[in-house]
Amino acid sequence: MDFENILEMDDRVFEYWIGFTKEKFNSILEEVPRINETRKGCLGLAALLMKMRTGDSDERIATLVQVPRRTLENSIDKIREILLQDFVPQNLGIYQLTREQLLEHKLTIPHGIFGNENNTNALVICDGTYIYINKSSNYMFQKQSYSLHKYRNLLKPFMIVACDGYIVDCFGPYKATTSDAEIMTNLFSEGSALRSYFRENDIFILDRGFRDSISFLEGCGYKPYMPESLREGEHQLTTAQANRSRCVTICRWVVEAVNGHFKRDFKLFRQEYFHRSLPHMMQNFQIAAALLNRFGVRFVDNIYATEILEIIRQQMNLENNLANMVEAQNMNRRTSYFQSITADRNNILYFPILEMRDLILFALGTYQIRQARSYYGEHVRFHGGYRIEVCSEQFHSSEYDLRGSTNGTTLIRGRIKSRHVTRRQYYVYILLENNIPGRTGITEYCCSCLVGRRTVGCCAHVMTLVWYLGWARHQQHISAPAEFLDGVIVREDDEE
């Protein structure tokens, strides 16, 4: 490979090492003319992008491009400084992004749930991410960089992201011992640039790590939202709490996806960071964020976004009457009420046949559907199938205001093993209206897990039964995921 004439390399080889096509590489050179004015600036840009792409050491990259390591490091340092001065400010930060431009970075579901009709409220998602580092002989730095949560040494960049994946700004790196709430409070302190940029009633989608900053943000006039936490003494969220939590998580996945793009496109941030390069870590992170903003693909609305938003509005204030009945009659402990059956292709006559579109609208997304296949694999591999039961007793649906007809219903119960705790299982209940096709035939559902009472979407355990009974068992072939791993670990006799 001739790195002296890098633009003459084969297109596939170029993109493999650099991570960008030649067209994108040339656009950087055009936008930042100072690179070409620098001696071997084109090679220095290629070496910096190669380092971020592959995560290789300076010595290995120097050997690959056939220049001395010291010369390569000096060239990379110059190009990095030029990018930070000329490229990053044009593609990252609140100073290059007007409020009107921020309001254009929107999606239907987040703004439909939390925004107003006039589209005057900005909506952003905040989160910290981790970059793992090695242990240090500098004891003060070692204590500051060791996370008791992850049991590893790390530093924390912090990001503010629009709901279509555009990175508004990034900050840091912060100590591993600094919570997201502390970072948020510091960034929005009185007189700060962010405090001036964001306005009253702007919306912040957060996770539970920000709980100690909620009152502060509300005092600033903002509207923060985060998933609900369990009340003391409770083992399950209420229906209203679970629904509000689902409205947050259906929007918050964007920041997790952006974090994933950093680790996917730039291996430098995926592996343990070299101590020698730590002084430039945040600068590299900002360059990567600017590159993602400049060349990355923005998230777009799901093709079912309008229908999903309408379903959320319809079901947001519904009570989970089936969960109330299960709790009142203590059905989890009653075996005489239910008759066991085998979930094969033909014996559950009343369960409606569903299309993939029905599953997406039932779950309000695809995450639970992907989880369902893994739960299916867990049960099929070592248990032969699901344990599914049909209620054999008459129950008074009118007493609990169950939705659906009063006499043409079937109640089924399933037991789904936890994916986290081996000995834990969850009870799933699904109420069917007989002879009603499609997802409308499923009138109510609940689960004994933390969010099992939600009526906005469903948990992964409910989806596991719905996915299998309504869709998977009607397919010609459904395989468990990652079957090649089944024989890797030596199993004890009781596991077999």
From TrEMBL:
An example molecular function term from Gene Ontology annotations: zinc ion binding
One Pfam family from the record: DDE_Tnp_4
Cofactor requirement: a divalent metal cation
InterPro entries per record: HARBI1_dom, Znf_SWIM
Superkingdom in the source lineage: Eukaryota
Keywords for this protein: Metal-binding, Zinc, Zinc-finger
Metal-binding found in the keyword field: yes
Domain SWIM-type, chain residue ranges per copy: 426-470
PANTHER family (UniProt xref): THAP DOMAIN PROTEIN (PTHR23080)
Protein name as annotated: SWIM-type domain-containing protein
Lineage: Eukaryota, Metazoa, Ecdysozoa, Arthropoda, Hexapoda
